[in-house]
Amino acid sequence: MVWTIDFRDKRPIYEQIVSGIEDEIINGLISPDEPLPSVRSLATDLSINPNTIQKAYRQLEADGYTYSVPGRGSFVKNTEGVREMKKKEVLRDLTDLIRRARELGVTEDEIKEAIKGDNGK
Amino acid sequence: MVWTIDFRDKRPIYEQIVSGIEDEIINGLISPDEPLPSVRSLATDLSINPNTIQKAYRQLEADGYTYSVPGRGSFVKNTEGVREMKKKEVLRDLTDLIRRARELGVTEDEIKEAIKGDNGK
DNA sequence: TATCTGTATTATTCGTCATAGTACAGTTGA
DNA sequence: TCAACTGTACTATGACGAATAATACAGATA
User: How many CB atoms lie within 10 A of CB B71?
Assistant: First the structure.
């Protein structure tokens, strides 16, 4: 487990779990058809209620990241397209944010600086 | 009133009001020392409870956008610096989002496209 | 002085989040 | 076969925030 629960975070726990596992899937830390930790074991590891984990897993399945087999476990789906979806989502957010930046009078140079200043490459 | 309440929005009503009025102030639709609509009249216009408006106005004052005078009304503050604050905030969000985009494998070209594709200038 | 203004307070309703406990059916390995 | 795992479902409870409702008070104003 790379991530942890942040109790000061205003987002609900189950949501933190969802996005944490989403990231693991997208970054290939869990491969397709590999099992997620079981509801009960993850609940024990994170010291939270199993029902909360179940809610997160239900969400992950609804979002198309995983599939569940009663009696066996929850598994990572074939994530062809998922990464593409996420990329499109981020690019949409990016254009929105840049529009907002322009409305505030942020200059082109400042925008370029934000892009360059990030990776230093 | 330029904006309206979106009841399907997951954000609470009072927060929508805060950011709606913030935008009006930043975009100069209400000038410094101009009065905001009164708590009761805005509540009537938006068909929501006066207490909700009061909460939003309290927030706006706490955030430094307005000042209130009991018996007279709520007024827009001199917003020197507010726009600067917002710009810095947006630029921070921008670097975060671009980092996330890179992590997803978004190319430099796609990022530049998002910037250009926006204003077409 | 009537009517506007902001402000404060208490009570109630509602929905979400999280926990707790229990139960059931499918799977698996010893 | 069977104990121990798996996902899943259900009800109940407590905590919390959001929103509404109903008053009340003091300052400002025409």
Answer: 5
